[in-house]
Amino acid sequence: MANPSVFKSFLLCYLSLLGFTLSANNHGVKFLFPTTNQILNYQDTVNVTWRSPFKNPLLYTFCYNSVNHDMIQEAIQKVAPYNGSQLIPLVWKGVSSCNFNLRPNTTAGNGADSPLFIVLPTARAVPTTVELGSPASTSGSTSTATGEGDPSTNDTPSLNTGLSSGAKAGIGVGVAVVLLAVLAGVALFLLQRRKAKKTVANPTPPPGYVEKYYGGGSGGQKYQPVDSTTGSDVQMQEMNADTLTAQPGELSAEVAHELSGSDVRREMNPGTIARNTAGGDGRGFSWDKSTTP
């Protein structure tokens, strides 16, 4: 079985991609302004700009207090369809942050939220409208001021640039499928590699190998020990136990044997004395060599 860490990594990547896909599905809504890390002031006017597929959208404004960040203000208004913008003045006291929500109806969850921005409690010396293209505002910075009646603030963008939510979801799903395929291939490779290691560790001889090289079967070679004394390649064969061998036996006493007449007679040494004894070779005498005094 494949390493469990591979499956853990696979699961984490899948969940991350799933979260990315779900977060990218904003029902086709994209806020162009406000952007992230925006800092505004009390009584500033925000030119909220968006792109959406909604024909009759509603723009919600949510603001939160500076104590426990509970929502203290909610404003609803009808805005321009599809790609549009709307001026929203920040006239609520005691708020610390706000954000906008664009949806096709009053049902929550069918739209998308803008980035949260900070609202400072002090107003600027001159009323200011903050919009797309203006620098991030702080208490010591200035931004472009426009009148509320300026028609440029209500122009509807004519082109919808950027990827739609469907395209983002498709990209997320495609990336997830590719990653799944790659991880599955890695897991299969590791599994096959582990099986290959087991096969090398315990090799199995092919059929007929034992019979051919170890004497099995009718055509096999017999065991022949090597002559260790000579070190030669000539092999000694063990004799068959069935071979008859000569067994020692006692000669019959009834058969008379005459000594050969061709024996050479030799003169005895004077120092050799024949003695008649009861022992010896069983013929009543024995030869003994004594020393002449």
TrEMBL record:
InterPro entries noted in UniProt: Immunoregulatory_rcpt-like (IPR051694)
Q: In what ranges is there compositional bias, type Low complexity?
A: 133-149
The positions making up the signal sequence are: 1-23
Q: What membrane topology does this protein have?
A: Single-pass membrane protein
What is the originating organism of this protein?
Hyaloscypha bicolor E
Stretch list, region Disordered: 130-161, 198-233, 259-293
Alphabetized, the UniProt keywords read: Membrane, Signal, Transmembrane, Transmembrane helix
State what protein this is by name.
Mid2 domain-containing protein
